[in-house]
Amino acid sequence: MRKLIYYVAVTVDGFIAAPDGAFDFFPLEGDHGPWLTERYPKTIPGHFRETLGLTQARPRAFDTVLMGRATHQVAVDEGLASGYPHLRQYVFTSHPGDLPVEDGLTITSGDPVAVVRELKAEPSDLDIWLCGGGALAATLIDEIDEFRLKVNPLILGAGIPLVAGQAAPVLSLRRRMAREFESGVTYMEFVRA
What is the pTM of this model? Predict the structure, then answer.
């Protein structure tokens, strides 16, 4: 069965974005960048893929991406219909009618848990990427199989937390791996124990 993997950049104090939703303070330069790009080439937004020579990159981890409206809005604000046209995309929003649509992009006000359970049941060797945001992560907390975190040496003090809002506690995670980079970023994987 496919897994739902929450792969996201986070600060030391647990925020995935500033209070206004900005996340441009996360460092892109450094020795962590090439390693993460090699491991997760399909997580690079579509409009950067050609510049980075990733248009022919085969999927290594994910073929589907899930996100909330605010995460998707970043691409819309750049004039794009979607940020990840090379993946099958699901955007969860309470106002689906006011977003541009393209092939491979599903905009829905449906139950995220039901959608994830259907996606997990599909036959595939590739997993499902939850790329944001914190409120969607809270809704899907019981469906998240792994947390793969790019922990950045930053403290915001306030912002959008990794899991925002009411969520059932997850008290049984096991760290599978950690890799430290000279840039100060630490990549960590946690799985349900």
Answer: 0.93
